[in-house]
Amino acid sequence: MIGAGASGMMAAIAAAQLGHHVMLLEKNEKPGKKIYITGKGRCNCTNACDTEQFFRNVVSNPKFLYSSLHQFDQAAVRDFLEEYGCPVKVERGERVFPVSDHASDVTAALVRALKANYAELRLGCEVREVLYRRASAEEQASWEGKQKPEQAVSGVRLSTGEELMADAVILACGGISYPSTGSTGDGYRFAEAVGHQMVEAKPALVPLEICEPWCKELMGLSLKNVEATLEAADGHVIYREFGEMLFTHFGVSGPLIISASSYLQKEQAQKGAMLYLDLKPALDLETLDKRLLREFDTYQQKAFHNALDHLFPKKLIPVMVKLSGIDPEKKAGTLLREERRSFAQLIKQLPLTVSGIRGFQEAIVTQGGISVSEVNPSTMESRLCHGLYLVGEMLDVDALTGGFNLQIAWSTGHLAGSSIPW
Fold first, then answer.
1. Residues of CATH 3.50.50.60 domain(s) within the chain?
2. I need a surface site. Which of 64, 86, 167, 367 has the fewest CB within 10 A?
3. How much is the pLDDT for 377?
4. Which of 9, 379, 369 is nearest to 172 (CA)?
5. Where in the sequence of the chain do the CATH 1.10.8.100 domains occur?
6. Taken in order 393, 398, 400, 404, is the CA torsion positive or negative?
7. Per-residue pLDDT reduced to its tens digit, 185-232
8. Residue of 419, 394, 393, 418 lying closest to 406 (CA atoms)
């Protein structure tokens, strides 16, 4: 196995539990480096929702995951972590975390499982290339697919020049998000060497850059109960959801926004995209207008800009006043019906122009990767090379935040490790 991240460690454990001699190779100085930073250091290790809800949260190629998730689902992950000394809890949104709130405890459980099942872990061990040979007639005859692979793996060559022979190699090298954790695209290179096709890799679950300069004035402001609607240039809705967001020096971030970014990437609709914020999603336009009328009647002698304290966070008020076009010193009680209605519309549809998506340095996952059409979803084995398996973030499969991407890593890794034949 190449890569001691979530999918690689799970693959190694599953293979070792079946009695295979397993060697897990990791170029970093410690395993699970990306696990340590997931969930802001708490590790949202899976999601306890039902299967139907789970697949609704998968952005790319959900059907490819049916077999792997069925074989090793969210409950299996929770049982596994508990068995190896990492009790878990379920929080809002069915998100599962270690009871300790320490991501390191998840990694520690995986390392204990590796040791308990006699899987060898070699750290600081960089693979330079995967070695291949011509597939034997017996191997081709045993192949279930229509296309008989001409190649088979024979092992790996390390950066030191050392060669390690193997009957199977699992690529669990990750994508190219958070490259500081070691995800630098090595696995793509290994897979492309045997003819695998790449779906363009893009940063996903990442903040959005916004044109409007007033966003900078709101830097650090978090809004918890808003609805975001993302529209393409032609006006069709790409994404609409309710949740929490954050203003930054370059635009917007937070769970609501980074989820929107994955759908924006998927549709390749960055150019001309608009983001609309509904600041009062619990109220329809008519109800909101009546609420404003009551507020302005209550504070009718106050200047407009001083009559909004019960409507918005203090930092947001000057921006809303400026965007409204209403004289800030105008008495609240003298606002015309048209002005009030226009202001209500602004509250329900605050427009932001998307100028870009942040890069891989800030992306939680990689969208794109090895085409799933070239991987057997029942085993995770390559359709092009006998004995080569591809798992986790390397594949063109990604999901929203909430523990779904880690579950994909656990499920695909476990399926690959348990599919290696004797």
1. 6-201+369-419
2. 167
3. 97
4. 9
5. 207-358
6. negative
7. 899 999 999 999 999 999 999 999 999 999 999 999 999 999 999 999
8. 393
Query: CA–CA distance from 263 to each of 177, 180, 228, 260, 318 (Å)?
Result: 17, 25, 13, 5, 32
The two tokens of residue 318 are 């000057």
Q: Is the pLDDT of residue 143 over 90?
A: no
| Spatial distance between the Cα atoms of 19 and 362, rounded to a whole number of angstroms | 39
pLDDT bin (cut points 50, 70, 90) of residue 28 is very high
Q: Which of helix, strand or coil describes residue 234?
A: coil
pLDDT digits (tens, 9 = 90+) for 56-97: 999 999 999 999 999 999 999 999 999 999 999 999 999 999
Exposed/middle/buried for residue 97 (C-beta within 10 Å: 0-12, 13-18, 19+): buried
Would you say residue 352 has pLDDT above 90? Answer: yes
Indicate if the alpha-carbon torsion angle 404, 405, 407, 408 is positive or negative.
Answer: positive
Is the domain spanning 207-358 CATH 1.10.8.100? The answer is yes
The Cα–Cα gap between 318 and 328 comes to 9
d(CA 264, CA 270): 6
Which residues are paired to 399 by β-bridges?
Answer: 58
Question: Structure pTM?
Answer: 0.91
